Amino acid sequence: MSAETKTPTPTPTPTPTPELDLPLLDLNTSLNVLIQGVQIGQKAGVYNLQDSAVIYQAIHSIQTMAKRAEQQVQAQQTAGAPIQDTPVTEAPVSQ
User: Fold this and answer.
1) How far apart are CA 60 and CA 12, in angstroms?
2) Which residues have C-beta within 8 Å of that of residue 53, sequence separation ≥ 6?
3) Neighbours of 23 (CB within 10 A)
4) 9-67, pLDDT tens digit by residue?
5) In the chain, what are the domain boundaries?
6) S-S: 51 plus which of 47, 59, 69, 81, CB 3.0-4.6 Å?
C-alpha cells in the first residue's frame, strides 16, 4: 500500500492594483459617470428586480437633489436671496 503525500497548494499572492494618475472630477461629473455605469449594467441585466428598484430610487434622489440645488442657485442669482438648504424627504422603500 502506497501512501499519498499531498503537498500544500501555494496561495497566490494578490497583485497590487497600480495607482492611476487620473485627474479628479467634480462631484457632478463623478455622479453622472456612476449613474451612467449603473444604467449600462441595468440594461445588460446585471441587477435583479429588487436591486434595480433600490438603484432607481437612489438615482432619482440624486437627480432630484441636483435639480433643487440648481433651482436654488438660479433663484439666488436672479433675486439676490441667500441660498438655503432644503431638506429632501425620504420616499418609503418598498420591499
Assistant:
1) 42
2) 94
3) 4
4) 777 777 776 777 878 888 888 888 999 999 999 899 999 999 999 999 998 998 899 89
5) 48-79
6) 47
